[in-house]
Structure of Daunorubicin resistance ABC transporter membrane protein:
Amino acid sequence: MGYRQTATIPEILLLTFPFLLAVLGLGKLVTECLRSVEMIYLTLSFITTPVFYLSGTIWPLQAMPQWVRAISSMIPSTWATKAIAGVNQMGLSLRDVGGDVAMLLLLGAIYTLIGIGVGALRNRVGLRNLFRKRQV
């Protein structure tokens, strides 16, 4: 009964770490794009369900149009789902899912750098406006 689980708990935890880094980077980017802290909750409730479907967790990616697959490749949960399912259900080794892990780390780095850039730009514009108000 149930499903075949071939991965050990340490293997799953090892795959979870790059996923968390990628999600933290995406979170940094999303929060830097929002104007207030309250907007985070509204935004999360809006994007959670589409991200869940686009990741291939519920609906197979092969059944989606090419443009949807292109969007899903930019979501960390797509790569994490692929890696964890590969190790846990298909018996792949950690080496076999190394490309998925590398993609998670790359997405995390890209999202973090863009988030830092957006935050720096927003802070610079905010400081510039603050100095203009003081001069008046």
Summary: The mean pLDDT is 89. DSSP finds five helices and no strands in the chain. Residues 32 and 119 are 5 Å apart (CA to CA).
